[in-house]
Amino acid sequence: MKTNVNLQPFNSFGFNATAKYFVEINTIDDLRQLIKTPEFKAERHLILSGGNNVLFTNDCFDGIVILINNKGIEIVHEDEGDVIVRAQAGEDWPEFVRFCVGQGWHGVENLAHIPGKVGAAPVQNIGAYGMELKDSFFQCHALNLTTGETRIFTNEVCRFGYRESVFKHELKGQYLITSVDFLLHKQSELKLEYGNIKAYLEQNGMTQPTLQQLHDAICAIRDAKLPDVKQIGSAGSFFKNPVISAEQFNAIQQQYPDIPHYPDAEGMVKVPAGWLIEHSGPSAGSGFISWKGWRDEHVGVYEKQALVLVHYGGGKGQDIVNLSQRIQKSVAEKFGIKISPEVNCV
Ligand code: EPU
User: Fold this and answer.
1) Which residue in 40, 101, 204, 251 has the most C-beta neighbors within 10 A?
2) Catalytic pick from 91, 163, 179, 330?
3) Is residue 222 part of a domain?
């Protein structure tokens, strides 16, 4: 176990924070050893996967940071139509998706290019372009951090929701996901309906795209909208898209007829937080300035996607916290809607 490790390389915002203890897990045995140590029993812990959805708000994490790095991809079942593929938690998510697409397996292609590792994907049920992890999630294996026992979690038990799972609530901090099994299909219809996927493909001469072409198109669409974390620190979407009542939505739509929206199964309406943020700003009224593209010294709102807060370097996690609170306040004042962070603030 290392001490006083700088976490800057391990969080995509690129903030400096020091971990009191830091341990890298390459095998399940490493993990079983770790949980028996006196340090583990005495200290709080943080499970770090790719560090793509975490904001360090303090200069020091006063506990143990556990970096998940176990690797391996294997087929556990295959028949004429389907395959169940097991990926260890430390596998890189975008590479795993690329691998599946390369094999001709359908089910995760719209989740291409989402930075992170496999083990973190179920925790917040990652989603993009009309697909969510839960659609292909078969089960996962997780280790109980108190008893060391492993347990299988089926799709149902995980209680997936929009960026939600049991691992963010009742079981928070209790289990560490060690591998995930995906049920993928050798043939399936491609999901092209979301946003500008179809338009992008048609513009590039692809009216009947292949699985690989769809994957590559999604990578290109994401690249055009979202910052490359190697250049600019960010954690992707900072907020979740809020879900509001139809009455509240209708009132807003009267004033803003172009507001994008997605009806919810329960008669509610999901509204893109990016749109709400773009239409709010640090200064309202006649001198209106939008948050989109707004920049303080070290942090700001990404110019191509207002849902993404960015760190240009030299700042602190607290700068992002302050900015996010200002944004929340102005969205609440203008639209009466509370937006909540998607990112895990520690
Ligand atoms: N919009 C604006 N202004 C903005 C951003 C968006 O008006 O600055 C509008 C867009 O024009 C569009 C709508 O809002 O009409 C939705 O935008 P987009 O398709 O970009 O998706 P999003 O709702 O902003 C969600 C996910 C993303 C995911 C995309 C694509 C959440 C919190 N975010 O964003 O996920 O890539 O859909 O499916 O649900 C992430 O979680 O880190 C992430 C990037």
Assistant:
1) 101
2) 163
3) no
